[in-house]
Amino acid sequence: MQTVARVMDFLEKLGKDDVEQTKRRGKKLVVVDEEAADRYHDRCDRDIEQPP
Question: What is the tens place of the pLDDT at every residue in 23-34?
């Protein structure tokens, strides 16, 4: 469970205003703005196609 919490914290710091943590039905969720999610996805795809 600690790993999940660390990942959620990392995502929140990464996204700043585009990512928020919330609770629903007693479970913690990470909510990412749709446009931000598209940007992150595009960036990941670009990194896969062009390795460092």
Answer: 889 888 878 888
- Residue 19 in contact with residue 12, Cβ under 8 Å? yes
Asked if 19 and 31 count as a contact pair (C-beta separation under 8 A), the reply is yes
**pTM strictly above 0.70:** no
SS3 42: helix
Q: Alpha helices of 1-52 — where are they, by DSSP H?
A: 2-15, 34-49
Report residue 25: phi and psi, to 5°. 55, 35
Q: CA 31, 33, 39: angle at the middle one, nearest 5?
A: 125
